[in-house]
Amino acid sequence: xxxxxxxxxxxxxxxxxxxxxxxxxxxxxxxxxxxxxxxxxxxxxxxxxxxxxxxxxxxxxxxxxxxxxxxxxxxxxxxxxxxxxxxxxxxxxxxxxxxxxxxx
Length: 104
Prior knowledge:
Helix 1 packs antiparallel against helix 2, helix 1 (4-13) crosses helix 4 and helix 3 (35-42) crosses helix 4 (46-67).
């Protein structure tokens, strides 16, 4: 399986990529297409896909390094899960469940 962290980063920051870069990342990581399959789909060379993918992944990682939205969401999600398991009332658990649905 390919790197799920990149899938997560694409979910968070994919809107900041060009349409082509986002498409390459989505096809490679979410659809599990090979570089050759993506190249055929986009009518470009395999090398062009490789470069686009490499640049897009670097951009996603750079966005996370600077902004840390995915990291913060992960921490909030972990705290909400812990709160849901430790909460005493059904109302509290339901509130934590709603938070988790938003984060996931």
